[in-house]
Automatic annotation (TrEMBL):
Residues 22-136, 150-265 form the VOC domain. It comes from Streptomyces pilosus. It comes from the Bacteria. This is VOC domain-containing protein. SUPFAM superfamilies: Glyoxalase/Bleomycin resistance protein/Dihydroxybiphenyl dioxygenase.
Amino acid sequence: MTDARGNARPNGEAPGRLTPGTPCWVSLMVHGFEATEEFYGALFGWEFRPGPEQPGPYVRALLNGHAVAGIGVFPADRRLPVAWTPYFASDDVDATAHTVRSCGGTVGVGPLDAGRAGRLAIGSDPGGAVFGIWQPAGHTGHALTGAPGTPAWNELTTYETTHVAKFYETVFGHDEERTVSADRDHVTLHLDGRPVAAVHGLGNALPRDRGPHWTTYFAVTDTDDAVDRVRRLGGRVLEPPRDGDHGRVAVVADPEGARFAVVEVVG
């Protein structure tokens, strides 16, 4: 697990242009700002500033003055699942949305303009996992990665990797590195030779109540301490801390139920 942006500048500032297919942003849609801001502010040290008001109320989460994530509010009449959504960069969101549809995915939102920040669409792959497409203008994406409190990785959990990985390869130009194992269906997606995301196939073991879904990993200095703070702040622990291939990781949920993972920064 590495910095998936690849072409970010060493000082953490966002580059002027992102390679298409780069994971460039994560966004959360919730039913209320106040409790969500309190939770993530206390957990990660985030501060919040107003973002583009299109397509709806939105704030950017900042860490040490750098944008790291976004949070929007559902319309009052929409009771949709609360979830973190990763966005992939595109030079032409309309063309990318067309490719999504032609490859068996769907586009549920957009393409549409987000003020002067950029242009976006939200789609789903053939398995139903939701992701975003971002064409930057005034806002290029994550301005800081790799530090505690910032997105570190995104992983797709789905039924099988073969066809789904091919979808992302076609839509975003990713290359595949398959784990050779009789009991593990796992693919790492690469861009320009760098790992940017992973796809993990569970077959019939995939929870029916979840279905295929993306999970965003946020870096922390101490996974066990972060899990304790999640509990104290009203969140839930879904998978307790364990030592994995890329460090100590746990899966948790915020008070509104949005799932995410925390992974310990090594070194």
